[in-house]
Specification:
350 residues; alpha/beta; Rossmann fold; CBS domain Like; 4-stranded antiparallel beta sheet
Length: 350
């Protein structure tokens, strides 16, 4: 089922340094990241992370540099070993896997798309796309049809025999996505996968990912430092600061109900009309006596509603799902939703 937990992270800690177990006790007693480094010369990577990643959904983990987001994603396939905690995949403890089992997990269960593309320069686009199957023992002849299919799906039809240096950055990243899809792994880990791309190409890649996800329903863990990207892609959003989860949940709910000045600072300048959805601000009642100005879909953004209203604040729209009325939205309520929740403090704005 779509709401099943695919990956469960429980009480996860990571401390970098020569005696992490000793430093862990100080962290559990409340020592912060700065003091741990200053007093004990250890770096706090992650503190008591608890996140459930749902099957078939996109979980986005975001934060500024040093927040621990890339450290966290590398724990899922044990590229980094934790200091303490649990990581379960389909209910099984990843930390208990032996070396051979761990290799199998990385080859068959969790594919990874990197920021720097990680393509082999001496291999063709086709060979790079089929790398996971090649490592499992398949020949080019075995995986060629599958690789050709997914390369075409990501817009690279006809480029199979080119080499990475002959492709643009956006095209190289498409090869990376095709490689993850050819592997047929149920989980895709994407670490700042689009951060190195130009804005327009980046937006195209985001759209492509959402289109593919609509068809394939993979479990995707996506790392980013960009709030716009996080809000566009995520079903579940996790925001980190100094190795700790500050807030997590439905991105729409976080935008409307930030629980920390750090989050307020993040969302203060966001284009709320573009990212807020009708479903997040509508009334869940329908009054048949109201003269509605028209119908909206629950996933329409508020920018769309503003355009349809023509600036008339007296208009009220009906909200429909699968042709049935599920609520209403007045322009006055919409206007209130566009007002930011609060202002960042001097500390968070610094």
């Amino acid at each position: 089922m779509a709401d099943d937990i695919k990956i469960s992270i429980k009480n996860l800690y990571k401390i970098f340094g020569p005696t992490p177990d000793v430093a862990l006790e100080h962290v559990k007693q409340g020592m912060n990241k700065a003091d741990l480094l200053d007093q004990h010369n250890h770096v706090l990577g992650l503190r008591d992370i608890n996140v459930d990643i749902l099957d078939g959904k996109i979980t986005v983990i975001m934060g500024l540099s040093g927040s621990g987001k890339s450290t966290l994603i590398r724990h899922l396939n044990r590229l980094i070993e934790p200091t303490a905690g649990e990581i379960q995949l389909n209910g099984e403890d990843v930390l208990e896997l032996k070396e051979g089992q761990l290799r199998q997990l990385r080859r068959e269960q969790m594919s990874m798309v990197f920021q720097k593309f990680a393509l082999l320069p001496h291999k063709t686009v086709l060979e790079n796309a089929g790398m996971a199957l090649n490592i499992r023992g398949s020949s080019v002849a075995d995986f060629e049809s599958e690789a050709v299919k997914w390369l075409a799906r990501v817009g690279l039809e006809g480029n199979e025999n080119q080499f990475p240096h002959q492709l643009s950055g956006g095209m190289q990243q498409r090869v990376g996505i095709a490689r993850a899809l050819v592997s047929n792994s149920p989980v895709m880990l994407m670490d700042e996968a689009f951060s190195a791309l130009d804005p327009l190409i980046r937006s195209d890649m985001q759209d492509l990912l959402l289109e593919l996800q609509g068809e394939l329903q993979k479990t995707i863990v996506f790392i980013t430092h960009d709030l716009d990207e996080a809000l566009k892609l995520s079903d579940h959003l996790v925001i980190l600061k100094d190795g700790e989860v500050v807030q997590q949940g439905d991105p729409q709910d976080i935008l409307l109900n930030p629980n920390d000045p750090y989050i307020v600072a993040f969302i203060n300048d966001i284009n709320r009309a573009r990212v807020l959805r009708v479903r997040s601000v509508m009334n869940r009642t329908v009054d048949n006596d109201v003269d509605y100005a028209g119908d909206l879909l629950e996933n329409d953004n508020l920018e769309t509603v503003l355009s349809r209203s023509g600036g008339d604040l007296d208009k009220v729209f009906r909200v429909v799902r699968n042709g049935e009325a599920v609520g209403s939205l007045s322009m006055k309520e919409l206007t209130l939703a566009l007002v930011p929740t609060g202002e960042p403090t001097e500390e968070t704005a610094a």
